[in-house]
Amino acid sequence: MEEGHFRSEYEQVSGQLYTFLLRTLGDPDLASDILQEAAYRAYRSRNQFRGDSSFKTWIYRIAVNTMKNHWVRSNRERKWFDEVLDTQSVETPSPERIVFGKESTSRLSQALMMLEEGYRAPFMLKHVDGLSYSEISQVLDIAENNARVRVHRARNALRRLLREDVS
Prior knowledge:
By secondary structure, this protein is an all-alpha fold.
């Protein structure tokens, strides 16, 4: 992939990728560092991009691997990819429910950070970044059905957490 083409593709997805990293990690500085390292790795290996998947899926995969490597290096105990889950699906909230204001957004952000790592990333990839289950499975290197399960479990956990917060 030529440098100019890489830059163009990267500029289109970098904002979404940063948002995914920020919401997954909960730390703006760390999200920025991981994004920068993932961009560097992708740039270095741009000639290895075969086009079997979209550029977005490819760079998300690099970012997830970079994040995973960071966790290993920092000796954090994460269960990110080791869990075997069975998850279902959940309805999309109505526009009225979405527009609760800053307090609800803050509660939702806090609830997202309370999700287990193995649920948070698939949920964010699906509902924030708009990836398909097939793309999520490629990015996270899990089975497509496992991606569906994790997203469903994340939704259920979020509902539970938000209900507890209201009670």
